[in-house]
Amino acid sequence: MVDAAGTMRNETRIPTPAESDADRLFEAIAALCDGVLRNEDVIAIGAGCGGPMRWPQGVVSPLHIPAWRAFPLRARLEERFGLPCVVDNDAKAMALGEWWRGAGRGAAALLGITASTGVGGGIVIDGQLLGGAGGNAGHIGHVIATPGGPRCECGADGCVEAIASGQAIARRYGEGIDAVQIAARARKGDDRARSVFADAGTALARGIVAAAVLCDLDRVVIGGGIAIGAWDLVAPALEAELARSLLVEFSRGLPVHRAGLGANAGLVGAAALAVLRQA
After folding, report:
1. ω before 52 within 30° of 0 (cis)?
2. Mind listing the pLDDT tens digit for each residue in 55-66?
3. Residues 161-166: what's their mean pLDDT?
4. How far is the C-alpha of 53 from the C-alpha of 88, rounded, in Å?
5. The 219-223 sheet, strands edge to edge
6. Could you give the CA distance from residue 248 to residue 243 in angstroms, rounded to a whole number?
7. DSSP-derived pairing of the beta strands 119-125 and 128-129
8. What is the pTM of this model?
9. How distant is the alpha carbon of residue 212 from its chain centre?
10. What percent of the chain has pLDDT over 90?
């Protein structure tokens, strides 16, 4: 529950249900909403969801949630709760939240990036969240960072997401452990683990360089589990690649920050979708 000033008033979380079909997953989310809606004066519901999706219809097919394919999330939420609902890409929601109340406040041209299970992004220019033809603008995860590099789930080779996402880090390191465990090994001096995170930082930087010169950015904010939990391992390579490649005069010295709202950036951003579009 987030108020119109962007302050988190009430929060609850549950683990993502395993082996759920489409309706069971929705019912889990509906129960989660019930937990924060009691005795509250609510004007709208905002939801950030992985893509791709049809926007503004809010019909979602997130790559990492196979149970939902062409799932009418917005319509189901509106029907269940009788409230206006806005559904957008989760990374776009994060970008809007950081521009509204986080490390992106005051930016004229902001790129927000989520580096977590996947890598996504959103762009806010002159106070407007860019949508694009189908609502997918800012999807930096599918910028090619290393031509001929690792195969991405989208089918292309060398996407930022195929190198810098949590899943990619785990896959490239191997041994069946997750990015958190790999980060712990990196901090203990495991050179292979450190190299995997350095590659992630380089890939993120290359995506930023492409976006910076295309959109004349004045700030970048990075959130998600990789940025929050492994910034010390990612940032050195990211900053080195930016210094090496961000040479166009108007883009030099582009400030890059971690998400000021931390793990809540996406939640505040989802509320911003509702607050700013319902105002």
Report:
1. yes
2. 889 999 987 788
3. 96
4. 8
5. 128-129, 119-125, 109-115, 219-223, 256-258
6. 11
7. antiparallel
8. 0.91
9. 18
10. 76
